[in-house]
């Protein structure tokens, strides 16, 4: 993204796979906030929500493994 990927950490590095967990309503609200902050539609389209390869998870360990699996697949350019 052209804006800072991590504003609180001051980073400019482009995220490999920006993503969020949570329901679609939360995703829509986050996108609206980012639009108002000046992010373009093509930048918002890169955000994966919900992120993760597995079905929705209820525990943190499964969620972390699901997200890590998706990041690894993206980095390795593995087709699902």
What would you say this structure looks like, in words?
- The longest helix has 16 residues, at 60-75.
- This protein has a single domain, classed as Rossmann fold, CATH 3.40.50.720.
- The chain is built from three helices and no strands.
- 42% of the residues lie in helices and 0% in strands.
- The two termini are 24 Å apart.
- The chain has helices spanning 24-36, 41-45, 60-75.
- It is an all-alpha fold and 80 residues long.
Which percent range describes the beta-strand content?
under 5%
Count up the domains.
1
**Counted beta strands:** 0
Low-confidence stretches: 1-9
Describe the structure using short key phrases.
80 residues; Rossmann fold; 3 helices; 42% helix; disordered N terminus; 0% strand; flat; mainly alpha
Short summary of the structure?
With 80 residues, the protein is an all-alpha fold. It has 3 helices and no strands.
SSE topology:
Layout: H1 24-36, H2 41-45, H3 60-75
């Amino acid at each position: 993204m052209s804006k800072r990927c991590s504003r609180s950490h001051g980073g400019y590095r482009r995220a490999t796979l920006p993503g969020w967990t949570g329901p679609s309503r939360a995703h829509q609200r986050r996108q609206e906030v980012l639009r108002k902050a000046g992010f373009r539609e093509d930048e918002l389209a890169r955000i994966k929500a919900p992120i993760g390869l597995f079905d929705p998870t209820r525990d943190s360990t499964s969620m972390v493994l699901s997200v890590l699996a998706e990041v690894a697949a993206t980095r390795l350019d593995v087709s699902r």
